Amino acid sequence: MKTKGALIWEFNQPWSIEEIEIGDPVKDEVKIRMEASGMCHSDHHLVTGGIPMMGFPVLGGHEGAGIVTEVGPGVEHLAPGDHVVLSFIPSCGQCPSCQAGLRNLCDLGAGLLAGVAVSDGTHRIHAKGQPVFPMTLLGTFSPYMVVHKSSVVKIDPSIPFEVACLVGCGVTTGYGSAVRSGDVRPGEDVAIVGIGGVGMGALQGAVTAGARNIFAIDPVEWKREQALKFGATHVYPDVETAMMGIAEVTAGGMARKTIITVGELKGADIDNYLNLTAKGGTCVVTAVGSMLETDVTLNLSMLTLMQKNLQGTIFGGGNPHYDIPQLLSMYKAGKLNLDDMVTRQYKLEQINDGYQDMLEGRNIRGVIRYTDDDR
């Protein structure tokens, strides 16, 4: 079928809305009419080259929610009419990683940036006669998609699409960074560096886990104000100011858990993040840096002597097929605030405006909401 999507054809160029052609679902694939897509910072890394796909053009978008319209042979747990969220990492449940309980590290994820379908190894999307490389095998910046069943999670149909899409990446990643990878315990002090969509998810995870003090660090005043509304106890504009403030509040003990959710991770900042972290504490690195950079500033002696943990995490360290419905059930029960995380909604044609708002600190999360005009 022919539809349209937001593409980039080379690095450091704006998103371009163009006609694309998507193949019909084959074995184990699902066709979805998209209703909403979150605008995550990771898609901006496609533009800058921080996350290099295997080729151009690239169809962006990896947070999305919609309605199943067609299923291919072999798809048994989904049917037309089902409301679904797209998991930005496929989770097959059968590979060695999934069997070991690491479903966020499913072996199918090895092909996330290759752009070819899990089902048959072909390109399912084309534009101007060329194969298209969809972000994380999804490409939610289009009103339709055809994806492998392992990336599709059925949800409660009463959940609004504009909030449901957020748990396809940002909220699940942030929340899990606190409650799973960070293992925040009641009474612990937690520092969160970067209060965007992922950081706000981490903040809510820390609140739910019973953290005593939650220190939110972000250069944007409006985001600091929002952090206080979501449950932060103290806010700071930068790490240096936070270091002094946290030392005062904790009598020098610092934060038992530090969670890094900045828009772009820099190796030069790692040692400062660990300096926010208490002896024997854990610094969870959730933010994404450039795959081309390998230099890190880190005092190895203090890492050993203070017995600190530097913990990487992806997708919150959880199981997307379990965590996504669970987080949405918390939202429905009033235990998770997703409504206020959606700062603005945009049309697909406004995608560049949305990312400018993100870069300038005006959004916690912007969402593309599809209409009949897009189809």
Written overview of the protein:
The chain has 375 residues and is an alpha/beta fold. The chain is 25% helix and 25% strand. It has helices at 41-48, 96-99, 161-164, 170-181, 197-209, 221-229, 239-249, 270-275, 300-305, 320-332, 351-359; strands at 2-8, 16-22, 29-39, 58-59, 63-71, 83-86, 125-127, 130-131, 133-134, 144-148, 152-154, 190-193, 214-217, 234-236, 255-260, 277-285, 309-312, 342-346, 365-369. Strands 3, 5, 6, 10, 11, 18 and 19 form a seven-stranded mixed β-sheet that branches. Strand 18 (342-346), helix 11 (351-359) and strand 19 (365-369) form a beta-alpha-beta unit. Helix 4 (170-181) runs parallel beside helix 5 (197-209). The radius of gyration is 20 Å and the shape is globular. The N and C termini lie close together (11 Å). The mean pLDDT is 96.
Query: What's the β-strand tally?
Result: 19
- Which range does the strand content fall in? 25-35%
Q: How far apart, in Å, are the first and last alpha carbons?
A: 11 Å
Q: Estimate the helix proportion, in percent.
A: 25-40%
Largest sheet: 7 strands, mixed
